[in-house]
Amino acid sequence: MSTSTESRGAQFLLNAYVALFCLYLFLPLGVMSAAAFNSFDYPSVTQWRGFTLKWFVALAHDQRILEGLRNSVLVALGVIAVSIPAGLAGALILTRLGQRSGTMLYSVLVSPVLTPGIILGISSLIFWREFGVPGGLFVAVMAQSSFIASYAMLLFLARLQRQDRTLEEAALDLGASHTMVFRRITLPFLAPTAFTAAVVAFLQSFENYNTTVFAIGGEWTLVTEIASRLRFGLSPVINVVGVIFVVLTVVAAVTYVLLKGRRAVAH
Amino acid sequence: MASLARAYGRLLAFLFAAITLLWILVLVLVPLGAMIDQALWWRESKGDVSLAIDRLYNDIALAQLDRNSEKDPAKQAALDQQIAQKQAEATALEAQEKNPPKTYGFANFTRMSGLHFYIFVRTILYALMVTLLALVVCYPVAYVVALASGPRKAIVLTVALIIPYAINELLRVYAWLMILDYRGVINGVLGWLGFLDLDNRGWIPFLESPSAVFVAMIYTYVLFMVFPMVNTLETLDRNQIEAARDLGAGTLRIHRRIIIPHAKPGIAVGCIMTFMLSAGSYSVPAIMTRGQGGDWFSQLVYRQFYESNNWNMGSAYAVSLLVVCTAFILIMMRLFGVGLRDIAK
Amino acid sequence: MRGKDVRLDNVTIRFGDTTAVHPTDLAIHAGEFFSILGPSGCGKTTLLRTISGFIEPTEGRVLIGGEDMAGKGPNERPTALIFQNLALFPLMSVAENVAFGLEARGVAKAERLKRAEELLALVALGGFGGKKPADLSGGQRQRVAIARALAVEPSVLLLDEPLSALDLKLRQHMRAELRAIQRRVGITFIYITHDQGEALAMSDRVAVMSRGRVEQVTTAETLYADPATPFVATFVGEQNVLPGTVASVADGVARIDTPLGPITGRAKATLAPGAAALVMVRPERVALGTGRENTVTARLAARHLEGPSVNLEFEHDGRRLVVTVPNGPELRDLPSEMTLSFGRDDALVYAEGPLAHG
User: Fold this and answer.
1) What is the pTM of this model?
2) Which domain holds residue C277?
C-alpha cells in the first residue's frame, strides 16, 4: 500500500513522530474537555472533586453566552449575505479579465486573506466611525466580510475554472438573453459552490476572534465573550463550550470523511 | 469591460463590476486608507490646554474675589478688564480643547516609546521563531501524510489534523492555559510528585513568562503550516521519488532535490500564514499573559484603541504591523519564487 | 422553417497581430448543405463563430437573408449552432434542453414541452424527454443536440464537427441521418469538418480552407475531379505529385519534364516555359500497361492490400508512383519492371504551391 522509500527503521521513527505530534494536538484538548465534568469550581483536572454535569446546566442558564451565540449567528448570516455575492461577482469578473489587469485585481481581492485580522478590524472600525457607526455587530459583519469574501471568491474561481464555456455560448445561441443564461446555466452550475462557500463563511465568521474583537465595540459574540471570560474569571462553563465544540467538530469531520469515502467507492 | 459585456451582457457585467468595486472600496481599500490617514495625524495633547484653562479660571476666580473686596472704582475697573481678558482667553482655549487642530506628520510613528518599540521588535522575532519552529515540526508530518502513507492512513491522519484545526483557536489557547496555570497540569503533576509545594504558592509561574505565549502560539498556529505543505506535496508524482532512489540518491538528497523544491509554494504559503497569524495574534497573548507582563504588540494596539483612546497612535501601530507583514510576504514570494496566484491556491 | 442564404462580404478576422481569416467572400445558397473543409487551424471554426455571432469580423460584413448582422449577438441571429462537444446542459432533462430556446422566447411551458416532444420524435428519440443527457449514448446525445437547435426554427444551422466524438460506424450512420434531416427541414446547413469523407458524402457544395483562405468552392464531384490548387488536389483524396519544369504550353495543354520523363497534362494555371510546375495524377487513374497518352516505365517496389483494391507502389529514379487497381487474381504474378500509362486529361498541372501534407 504505502510507497515507502525509507528503511523500516526510518519508517518506524517517522510514524512514531507523527503519533507524538497527534498526541501533542489532542492531549491539551482532552485536558480541557475533561475539566468540564469536574465539580471543582475552578477549571482543573488535577484537583478532581468528582464527576458532574452541573456546568452544562449552568451554561444553559448563562444569559451572556446565549446572547453571544445569537449575536454570532446574526453576524455569520450577515457575513454570508455580504461575502457570497461579493465573492461571486469578483470571481465572475476575474475569470473574464486578461492576464495583466486580472492579476492586479486579483492581488487586491485576495490581499485581505494575507492581512492580519486585527488590521481588518481596526480599519473597519475607523472607516465606519466616519459615518457615525460605532463598533458593534454591523462593523463586525463588514470587517469579517472583507476577508471572508476573498475565500468565497477563491472557491468560486476554482469552480469556474472547471466550467464548460460552450454551455453558456450554446444557451446564447439558442436565443437566451444574458440574464437568462446566468440564471439557467451559470447559477445552477455554481450553486453547489455557493452552498460550500456559505458554510465556510458561516464557520469562519463564527470562529473569528482577532478581527471581531476590534470591530465589535461594546457588543459581544460567543467567541469574544469566551475570550473575556478566559481573561477575567475562569469557570468550567467555558470548558463545557469547549466540549460542545469538540464533539460537533468530530461529528462533522467523521461524517464528511464517511460521505467522501462512500462517494469514492461509488466511482 | 468590453469583454465582460460580451460575456455577461451589459446589465450583468455592470452589476458584477459594481459589486466588486463596492467590495474593494467599502471593505478593503478605503478602510485601509482611513486607517493610514488616522495614523498620519494627531491633535496636540489636550492635557496642556486643559491645564491652561484651569489656571485661567483659577485666576478669574481670584480676581473676582479681589474685585468684590475692592472698594476703589479705578482698581475695580482694572480688575474687570483683567477678568474680561482672561475670560476671552479661556473661551478661545476651550474652543481649541473641543476641537484641536489636526497636524499631519510621522510623529505617531516616531513617538513610539522605547518599551513599545522593544515589544514590537520582540513580537516580530517571536513570530519568526514560531514560523521557523512550525516549519521544522511540520515538514515530517506533511511528508508522512502526503507521501508516505496509503490512502486509508492518509485519510485518518487528515481527519486527525482537521479536528484540532477546526476547533476554535481560543479553546486551543485555553487548553494550554489549563496546562501551564499555577495549579495547571504541569504544576499539578510536579506537586503530586513532591517537587513543588503548591499549597504555599511554590508553583512555577509559567504564565508570567513570554515563553507561555510562545508555546501556546505554536500549538495554535502550527496546523496552518501543515495543510499548505500537504496540499502541494500531494501533487508530487511518487514515481519521481522512486526514480531518484533508483538512480542512487539517498534519503537526504531526495528531500533536498526532489521533495522540498516541489513543496516550495506550500512552504511559502505555510510560512506566510503562520507568520501573519502569530505576529498579528491578539487572542493568544491576551489569554496567556492575563495581564502579567509578556506583552505582545497586538495588545499594545488594542490598548491604544480601547484603553488610552488614542486612535491615532493605535493606527500608527497597526500600520507598522501591516508594513512588516507585507514585507514578509514579499520577501517570501521573492525567496521561493512564487506568485500571488500560487499562494492563494 | 425556411432556409436563408448567407453571404460573407470581404470578411477579415484578426486577433492582435495574427490574421485568422484573410479577406473572404463566400455565398452560401438558401437551403443548401454547405461544408467548410480544412485542416485544424485553417480558420474554419473562426469563420463559423463569426457567422453565429460569437466573433465580430475585424473587417467586412456578414449577411443572412440579405440582412447585415453587424452588432447582432448570437442570441439575435437566425442561426443555431451545434457545438463540437454538443454543449448539452447537463443539469437539465433532455426535454428541457430541447425546449430551452423556446423558453428563451417566452413560449408557455406546456406548449414548449409539447414541441420538444415532437422534435424528439423527429430525431427518433420519442419518450426520452425525461432523461438526463448523461444517461444517453453518444449518438442519442447527438440527436438531442440537433433537436435542440431545430427547436428555435433557425434559418441556418451551423455544425462544428459534431460527429468527431463518435466511432466510425455511428459516424457513417449519422452522416446519412444529418443529410436526411436537412432534406426534411429544408434549411441551410453549414457544416465544419476536417474529414473529407464527411464533406464529400453529405454536401451540395464544399469550400476548402487553408491558412485562413478559401481555396476553392464547388461541388463534391468537381472538388475531387478538378481541384483548383495544389493544396486542394493533395488535401482531398490521394494524389501522385510529380515536380517538373514546364517545357511548352498550348491550348490549355502543358508538356512537363519530370524525373519520370515528359508528361502532358491539363494546365490548371498560367504556366510559362521553364517555370517550376507540379503534375498531379490520381492513383486510380493510372493503368497497368500502355494505351494512354503518357507512359512511364517503373520498378514495382511494394504492394499494399486495401481489400477491394490494391495500392501498387512503383519507383523510378528515386520517384514514387502509386497505382490503385481493383483486387484480382491477375495481380498475383506481376513482373518487377512494368510500363504504366495515364491519359492527358488525368494529369493536372499546377504552378508550384503549398501542398496539404508537409
Assistant:
1) 0.84
2) 238-351
